[in-house]
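ok trying this again, last paste got cut off
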Amino acid sequence: MIGQFILRIVIWFLLTANLSLTNIIIGVSISLLMPHYRSENIRFKDVVQGIGLTIKAVFQAYIEAIEMILQPHKYEEVIMERAKNRRSAGLIFLDVFLITFTPKTVVLRHQEDGWYVVHHVIRRIKKSENS
């Protein structure tokens, strides 16, 4: 339960980018009022890794935004990305959040067989292997 709370409050602060007292109260309230997944085995290690990946995604988002400003990305592709094995609902949410947080990618859907359908914006069309 503590792990879920920590993960939710970190995501709240990243989404709002506001550390005012009012925002902290709202974030804590929302994190406590959201239903907790008791039946799922969320390990503290997964939460710590998730927070680390979230911080890394912030830096990646800035880098990608600057790339897109300097070199416009005019093409797109839709690919399938494999999800890690045995993901709880909370960790699937974190995966989708991390992929979608960066400006070049967005998750279109999560499939039950463990795949994410991801839309990418790219600079140029990749050349095929036969060309």
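PB: full thing came through this time. The two ends are 53 Å apart (CA to CA).
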